[in-house]
Design goal:
heterodimer, A: Rossmann fold, four-stranded antiparallel β-sheet, 9 helices, 24% strand, globular, B: mainly alpha
Chain lengths: 251, 235
Amino acid sequence: MIQLKGIEKSFGGNKVLKGISCTFEEGKVNFIIGKSGEGKTVLNKCMVGLVEVDHGHIFYGNEDFTSMDRWERKKVRTNIGMLFQGAALFDSMNVEENIQFPMIMFTKLTKGERDKKTEEILEQVGLSGKHKLFPSELSGGMKKRTGLARAIALNPKYLFVDEPNSGLDPVTSIMIDKLVQQLTKQYNMTTVVISHDMNSVIEIADTIHFMSKGEFVWEGDRNSILSATHPLLNDFVFASQFMKEIKDKFK
Amino acid sequence: MLMGRVFSRPEKFRVYPPLIVKEMDKIGLQSVGIVSLLVLFMGAVVAIQTASNIESGWIPRWTIGYTTRQSIILEFSSTVVCLIISGKVGSNIASEIGTMRISDQIDALDIMGINSASYLILPKIIAAVFIIPFLVLLAMFVGVAGGASIAILSGNVSFSDFEYGAQYDFRIWDVAYSVIKTLFFAFIMTSVSSYHGYNTHGGALEVGQSSTRAVVYSIVIILVADFLLTQLLLL
């Protein structure tokens, strides 16, 4: 479980996060949605410690991440996996080396054990036999799956996923969504997905937090989002003609 | 502050030796060709220029060998070679680390709990400080040999005169002085380039700008350091 209590962050005079509080539950896919520039990425960076908050607290389980020093955070970080928007694979390493990198850095697994685990993970993400390919040889979907494989290499308790479907075709997008959902349930992770892709939201979201101007203005689940009456949320969800037609049929 | 992180305790010592060896290859071995070519011609040019400036019959011809040796050992092999390497290696380091920054690879390292500054920069500094002095020693040899070849082949000086000049009043301290300077230059070029790469923000355009800044700053700082070290070591 991840708990946010009164998170505030400003850049210069611009207050980007305005006292965000919420709980992301274990074993669930928790979505943060909202328009571009509303503070989703900043919140994500605050949660993983890439940006320091001005006020407020972030709890991983019962541990206050915000009040920890670098070395204490390091222990928490081994329980955090993250899939970046562009996958952020290490260009100089092949698929196998990318996945084994966290194992080499943080475990005492032997080469044989690492290879076995890599094999298992690659099978889970549907990349068996692609060990030796380099990031430049992978398609967008394969990069995301490799990024996901690396993110779960240490069996993390917390998974952060930033825009999992950007730049992917609809079929691959659904495949990545399902993979995130499946891995969340399988490892009982607390998963936080940053997205503005409504297809993903409808497909796999267990909880949804809608962000506007640095605040969560609506919270609910995928069953309630289509019938929600919040005007800002409606403007966002039903922005496209396609979604408007779905809404009319839904009524 | 960045250097504090670079030299703080690494996560796992045993991952560093292979990285250092890889960097030695990139920084050192892959620069052997360009360095050799450069000093070969520098040695030749110094020899020809010296020969063309000796008009007085009172100045012996072996001065060509002496001047070539001193120029190459004291300045060309260390400072000029390091300036060239900082152009090649500095831009490479800044663009490599800068690209990692803009493609979130450095953030990925940080989120994993890895000290990205140490993991990415320390092997480069250690490799450069270790391998570049060897390049400079090679440059001394090739530079003097280049000067000798041209001066002798062009008939400006006999082999025995050049040999006499090249050995005249030879002090090992001059070589040591050059190598000591190189240690500082190697540290400057790798740390300055890494700093600019690490602090890149934006996209491809900014990576290019970081790369340019890395080379310019490295060169300026190396020249200032050259002046200060010369004052300190030779006077």
